[in-house]
Amino acid sequence: ALFGDISHQLKQNKLITPNSRIVLEKPIGRDLSSARALNDAVGDDFDEGQIFRIDHYLGKETVQNLMALRFANALYEPLWNSAHIDHVQITVAETVGLEDRVTYYDKAGALRDMVQNHILQLLCLVAMETPSSMDADAVRDEKLKVLRALKRING
Known about the structure:
Elements: H1 2-12, E1 22-25, H2 32-45, E2 51-54, H3 61-71, H4 102-108, H5 110-127, H6 136-149
Parallel strand pairs: 1-2
């Protein structure tokens, strides 16, 4: 509710301009219901184009370089498809421990943080088709196609 309260106060005090931006870092909410509530609250005050939902993991240099490797490299780009790639294995080998993240992991859980957020983002970058452009909407649309193509594993 904190983001919603802040967002509403910014609007009420006429501090939101067309150039204003708000950044929400994942995870957004504790579950689907709270994520929707947070998106709705912020969306009441900001236009969609002013809201940036980010995953800090995507800012890592290696992850950033993945886009260039995939789409701007004349050697790899034509070969990066199912005809040439048999499978993909994503390994996240962190060299740091929990350090000051213990409280966060106790609440969010490592599975939710690493798999639901970071690893799914990496999967999307590796598996998505070439976007029509490199703007955020086009990249998001291609990532969404990957997520919608995933099959549920029942266990």
